[in-house]
Amino acid sequence: MSEAKEKITDAELEIMKVLWSAKQPLTLAQIKAALCGRNKDTTKTLLRRLCQKEAVAQEKREVWYYYPLVGQEELSCYRVKKLIDKLYEGSAKAMAAALVRHEQLQREDLEELQEMFSGLWEEEK
Questions:
Q1: Which whole-number Å values give the CA distances from 108 to 29, 69, 99, 111, 113, in the listed order?
Q2: In angstroms, what CA-CA distances link 65 with 12, 32, 46?
Q3: Across the chain, what does the average pLDDT equal?
Q4: Any bridge partners for residue 68, and if so which?
């Protein structure tokens, strides 16, 4: 597992989300515009850090263009696994139970998840 995934900060994650949603390389100006009000120097610093972490790459054209090297699904799965390991001793079942106990999952959500799991189990057969 890449060290970059573990070290991406919340501020850097905002930039990653902009890059993921664009589905094409973006310039610093485009990224800054998408972040609505973030300082240009701050954005540039965060992009430099993401490049150093090998989560983002840059390509020189008429100006620098940036694109993600780490996928959204890849990062999400990694972070969820780390959360489960850290807070629930590796038990996804314990996390799901906590979500139900604290009313983060409603009956409709559980029914939808049950259908999804049934579909996954059928695919394995």
A1: 42, 36, 13, 5, 9
A2: 16, 13, 14
A3: 89
A4: 56
Distance of alpha carbon 19 from alpha carbon 45, whole angstroms = 16
Lookup: tokens for 8: 């991406």
pTM for this prediction = 0.75
Q: Above 90 in pLDDT, residue 17?
A: yes
Nearest partner of 50 among 77, 14, 1, judged by Cα: 14
Max CA distance (Å), the chain: 54
Retrieve residue 56's tokens.
Answer: 């983002």
DSSP string spanning the chain? Answer: --HHHHH--HHHHHHHHHHHHH-S-EEHHHHHHHTSS--HHHHHHHHHHHHHTTSEEEEESSSEEEEESS-HHHHHHHHHHHHHHHHHTT-HHHHHHHHHHTTSS-HHHHHHHHHHHHHHHHHH-
Select from 65, 68, 67 the least CA-distant residue to 27.
65
Instruction: For residues 107 and 124, give the distance between their C-alpha atoms in angstroms, rounded to a whole number.
Output: 26
Mean per-residue pLDDT for 100-106?
Answer: 85
